[in-house]
Each structure stands twice: as C-alpha cells, then as structure tokens.
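Two proteins were folded this term; both appear here.
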Amino acid sequence: MLLPNCLFRVGGVAALLSTSPMNARFRLKHVVRTFTGANDDGAYRCVFQEEDDQGNVGINLSKNLMVVAGSSLQANITEIGPLVLPASEQLLFVLSFIARKVLGARIKPYIPDFSTAFEHMCIHAGGRAVIDQLQKKLRLTDQQVEASRMTLHRFGNTSSSSLWYELAYVEAKGRMRKGDRVWMIGFGSGFKCNSVVWECIQPAARDTDGPWTTSIHRYPVDIPDVLK
C-alpha cells in the first residue's frame, strides 16, 4: 500500500468544452467507456482504497493489475474499432474472430492497425510498464508512443491527466495538422478503460504558452532500457 505514494505525482488539467465551432480547436468525435468492475478477475479491487492492519488509509494495488488492464483494453478496442477503423481493417478483425471461434487458440487474434484511423495517440502514462505493454499489444511504433514516454520522463505519472500533457507535446512539436485525428486512452480504478477521439479543427501556434514551453527544445531524450 506504500507503492502508490512512490508511483504517482500530482498533476492537473483543465479543458474548456464549447459548442461553438468558431472558437473550438478540437471536435469531440467519440467517447467509449469500458467498466469491468463486475468481472470475476478481481477488476473491482485491483486498485482499491482501504485501511491496513494499523488503520492507515492507503491505495492497494493488486499484482494482477496489468492483466486486468489488458482485458479492459481489449474490451474497449472491440467497441471503438467499428467506430473508427476503415472497412478493410474491420474485415480482417472479423475474419480473425471467426477463425478463432472455429479453430480455437491456434489462431492468434488480429490486432488492427490503428495508424489507419489516427494520426496521433495519447497513451496513459501510468509508468514504463504500462506504455511498454500498450505499445506491444497495439503494435505501435516508437514515434507513436513518444509523447507518452516524454511526458512520463518530464512530469512523472500524473495518471489520466497525462493525456493532455501528451496532446500539448504533440502541438509543441508542431506535428498537429487540421483534420488530424487523436486517440486518447486512459485507465482508472473500478476497473475502467476509456477512449476519446478528437479531430483537430485549428492547431495551436508553436509559440503558444503551455506546459512544454520551457523544455520542448530538449525533447525527445533517449531513455535507456532498464536492466532486468
């Protein structure tokens, strides 16, 4: 229960939502919320606030947290895929699903190529292991997870607020273009996995004041592999 006190760093983000197409810079396209608290895999208690034997209140992180997160992500992908993926990717996914039903585990599940649906991805920077697993599971390139890794390096684990630091990183690098699609993937206790899809209406100017103003020129930095 001491572990969360070492893992998390204080962070906060405010986002102004508007119905005005004249002033908004991003258009909200989709929101998919996956809640797995009713599952039998311990999802509800894998991140849980409780008292220890001495009466101290803390957050208990279960050892199967990554397994639960992976299952939640898979369920979320299954739901958001038909909303964003082109027909060719959806067809491959359906064929893989049918083949697995017929032939069983001998057929590996098809992982859709989400780069066909999004130009930018903002992944929950909940730790190096979280980013590594998401990169592996979604078959993402190093550049696609760069914003997440650099946010973790610069600001630490600020939980789901890290997604907005990542969006600010992409804009500070001047990579955002009008019409670009952004996929945000966040996790939380419960256990839940949430996806938000944005479409850029008007990119921010590169000299816009933001969290990366004083440090963007130093990034990206090389992050060496951790010895196991």
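Next, the second protein.
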Amino acid sequence: MATAEEALIKKSADIYRSILHDGTDNTTQWRHGAPPTFDSVNQLFEEGRTKEWPKGSLEEVVQNAIKSWDMEISHKIRLQDFKTINPDKFKLIVNGRKGLSGEEILELGSYNALLKSSLPKEFQCYKADEETFESSHDAFLSALPRGFAWEVLSVYSGPPVISFKFRHWGFFEGPFKGHAPTGEKVEFLGLGVLQVDESLRAEEVEIYYDPAELFGGLLKEPLISPSQSESEDNTVNVAAAAHGCPFSK
C-alpha cells in the first residue's frame, strides 16, 4: 500500500506534468499573446544536465514544479491564471530578504525578484531597482540566447515542505550590460525550500544562492563600445524573444 507521501508525490507529478505538456484553457492571458516554446532551452537542458530522474520520482516532481511555476511567472500576466501557486498566501523569499507576493513578482519579473540586493548601489553588479520586467528579460535572454537551464541536483525532504539543491546554467554568447560575451558556460548552485498546500500549489518558495557565481562569468570581459553593444543587442533580442523562461525545460 502506498504511503501518504507517495500518494501526494504521484498526485503532484500528474498535476505538474499536465501544466508542462497539456497547456491551459483558452481564457489564459499570455504576456506575448501565446504560450511559449522552449526548443532552444530544451536542447540546452538535455545536453547539459547532470541528473536524469526517474519518471514520477520526487526529484522529477520538484524539477517540474519549479519550472512550471517560473513559466507562469515569466509568461502569464494574471495571477488568476496561475495553476502552480496559492495566490492568497504565496511568497518568494530570496537570500533571507523580505518575501514578495505573486503580484509583486508579476510586476518585477523573475530575474529582478531573484537579483534584488540590499547592498549599496555602488557595490551592486546588477541594479534590479532600475530595471523593468521587460528590460531584465531582454538583458538575460540576450546574454544567454540558448536559454538558462535549471535542474534539481538533490531533494532532501518530500511534500508538504520540500527542500532541494539546484543548478542553473547557460552559455554567455551575447553582450550583457555592455560586457562582451565569452562563449563560456556560466552557472550557479543554490538551495531551496518549497511549501505546498493540500492542492499542491506553492505557498512559499525560499531560494538561497550566491549571485557572485553568476556575475563573475557575465562581467568577466571588458566593456565593449556603445555602438557595437547596441548592434549586437538588437540582433540577439530578436532571437531571444522566441525562447522560453529561464527555468523551463
């Protein structure tokens, strides 16, 4: 007989697999007019992942859950269309800072939410307070035109409080904030805690990581000339618009 945790894991696997592969109803409002496609980042994920979790395992469930949540934040414009979170309770807490609500994250964008900093501005590698949803996504999708893949490395506890370790990576092949691309892989590791309700919707997500691991790669090269940067930005942005969200497979 299956344990209560095993039954919950199976239910969550069914829910998140449905969100990832079956789409949503016709009333969903998409930021770019239609559901995203993930061909480039799918390939990046398949070629670069270090773990291949069994279907229906807790690790696969957690991986799909976070990817689905980030897909909705990046591509849906109304909280009422979200299937992965409890909008009345949801909070995102990054590196111990004050939690952000679903509405706040929709306004900021996932990059700005993850990269907000309490450091004085002169010490900030990236000034999230000066970026919009659109400008932040343009900056990172231009720098990482093949996408920004994400995988679960370990899961330490099952629902309703799930703790896990993750890896985030991409290839720096376009300019970032005036810095020339290196063509090298950039990545960082982190830890997370995901709390879900009885309907398996996220109520709270805590993420802990070192942003310096990411920016060390993105700011490695010297600044390029404004005219060169602008030309490369325009070229890469057209291609980047077709890619999916940073986490999604």
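Residues 228-249 have pLDDT under 50 and may be disordered. The CA atoms of residues 41 and 147 lie 5 Å apart. These notes refer to the second protein only.
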